[in-house]
Amino acid sequence: MAQRKDIDGSTSVPTFYGKELRWQRERAGLSLEALVEGSFYGKSYLSDIEHGERRMPLDLARHADRVLGTDGFFERRCEDVRKARRGGHAEYFIDVAEMEKRAQEIEEWDPTLIPGPLQLAPYIRAVVLAAHPSDSEEAVAGKIEARRSRAWLFEDQRAPESWLVLHESVLRQPIIPPDAMADQLAHIAEVARKRRTVPQILPRNSGAHPFMMGTTRFMTFADAPPVMYTEGMYSGQLVDDPSLVRQYAKAYGRLRAAALPPEPSLKLIEQAAEDYRNGKHPNCSASDDMA
């Protein structure tokens, strides 16, 4: 029998909340399966909440209060846990940040920027100030720290397998000084060479293609259906409708087909990094490089 994992409720608001949930459940003599019966959630989901690893959705909190007779305790505390989990992330990104920790595979497209977990501090600072020019230095530092805390998604060997499609303009139109841009692109290449992340570059002369409207991310899981997330400057939308996710996934397949193969894409990134390092601006297109 697996050893029961204790919960240290002093480490954070979510773990305090989760420990109380376990105490109330066991006080009522209920198993994980018994408590989630009649809800739309599974026992592994509830177990993660008890260990402070997932946020409890409002409908599940109401279900727990009803079954445990806790007079709205868990519903009232949902907002506290949500705020505690926010950290330096935008409110609309909180659920996505939790989901990516459980993802088995991540597929991403960005037409204008390097994906957040691959961004280094100078790049993050430029992106943050472009969207929030009046932020204090403390707020900017917090957002840089929050974004860098997600670097494991691409840099850790135990991270989800990732497939990234980037528009060529990400390489050709730098938003930071040349030396910093060289470091940034070299970092992407270094991560890709570890073979957990596969990059593809969509040439800027590729014409009309899917997902011209903005950033898109797909995530697949071992214990839940796949989801799609799309984001604008000040908002994001999580799509979990199965038929819609499948439709988006097919479009992503067409996008990958229009992009350069992985190895030429990686060499293009490395060449752009070298050009910036040598004081040259990599103006030629990917198609010219392939000629």
From TrEMBL:
Q: Which Gene3D superfamilies match?
A: lambda repressor-like DNA-binding domains
The name this protein goes by in its record: Helix-turn-helix transcriptional regulator
Source species, please?
Streptomyces marokkonensis
The protein's matches in InterPro entries, at most eight in alphabetical order, are given as: Cro/C1-type_HTH (IPR001387), DUF5753 (IPR043917), Lambda_DNA-bd_dom_sf (IPR010982)
Residues spanning the membrane: none
Enumerate the spans annotated as HTH cro/C1-type domain: 20-75
Source domain of life is Bacteria
Q: Which SMART domains match?
A: HTH_XRE (SM00530)
